[in-house]
Amino acid sequence: MFPLQAPLSGLMALLLPLLLAGCLDRASEGAAKASEEYSHRAVGETLVELPGYEAQRRFMGSVQVKEQAQLGFELAGKVASLFVDEGDRVAAGDPLAQLDTRLLETDQQRLEAQQQELVAELQLVDSNLSRIRSLSSSGFASQQSLDELESRRQALQAKQSSTRAGLEANRLRREKSLLRAPFDGVVDQRLIAPGEVVGAGTPALSLLLRGGAEVKVGVPVRLLAQLRPRMPVEIAGQTFEASLIARGYNVDPVTRTVQLRLQLPPEAAVVNGELAQLLIDEHVEASGFWVPLTALTDGVRGLWNVFVLQPEADSGLYRLEARDVRILYANQERAFVSGSLADGEQLLSAGLHRLVPGQRVRLTPVTAALEP
């Protein structure tokens, strides 16, 4: 019997340290988990309940130049020259295009020759009249001859007036064969080419007024009271102070908005048809709280969750409690929410992805409350 007890005693002596080491490891692991549970430091901020919030509304519109003209010749003809191309800046009165005027120049020469012929004939008639009057006073010429010369003189004067009118019409046709810019602007489109035969009134060039851009945008009727003489307009990342020119008095049956016209400043380098956003601040009456976007996490049924810090008595720790909230308005940094929150509660403002409801954390206090 005694020989068997010696090996058992030795075996127990070997196993006892191993069992004690395992127990110590489990105790250390539990202490580490407990320490890890409390080691999370949360950033808490105080909720402040507000009766409403300021929301910045954005309404999409477009840039439109004040004047946009489709220019064309008043006469039909063949395009002889084009002096501008798309994108060129022009001043009022600058030549843009020219029709072929060779036929008009030939007609001008014919009318001028006819005018000279009539002048010569009138001089001859005047000389004959002078002689006939002298002879008639002496009784050597009949009254009929005098009347015939007077009639001839009147006919030549009428032809001379007609020729002068023809010359003036020719001058106007030659003048209208040159297309000029009606105002300072930029050539938007060129619709003809040299050598092309165009009809009267056919669009040749599209000209946009330079420095007269406007923004046309529709806003809801409820915001008409918020309009001011000068309002911010954002175009391609730039914000301009635009002057309110006029507003409509009819509601669009499709968009249910009223159209506004706003004048952009002269230095605004914009493009016709470019998108523009009108910014209007609106005060909304609704009870709620401002929270940072980092304090929100996905919820269910279209709601969002925030974590409220519930203090545990005499421990200095806080237990996380999930609350459902609804976002009423949001900007790039904050959201105005409503839900089961109370004024003065502590809110977990960051790090929600590392924590879960029910977990205990230590609070890192901040002095600023969540106010807009």
TrEMBL record:
One of its GO terms (cellular component) is efflux pump complex. InterPro entries: RND_pump_MFP (IPR006143). The keyword Acetylation does not apply. Keywords: Signal. GO terms for molecular function: efflux transmembrane transporter activity. Residues 1-21 form the signal peptide. The keyword DNA-binding does not apply. PANTHER family: BLL4320 PROTEIN (PTHR30469:SF11), MULTIDRUG RESISTANCE PROTEIN MDTA (PTHR30469). Belongs to the membrane fusion protein (MFP) (TC 8.A.1) family. This is Efflux RND transporter periplasmic adaptor subunit. It comes from Aestuariirhabdus litorea.
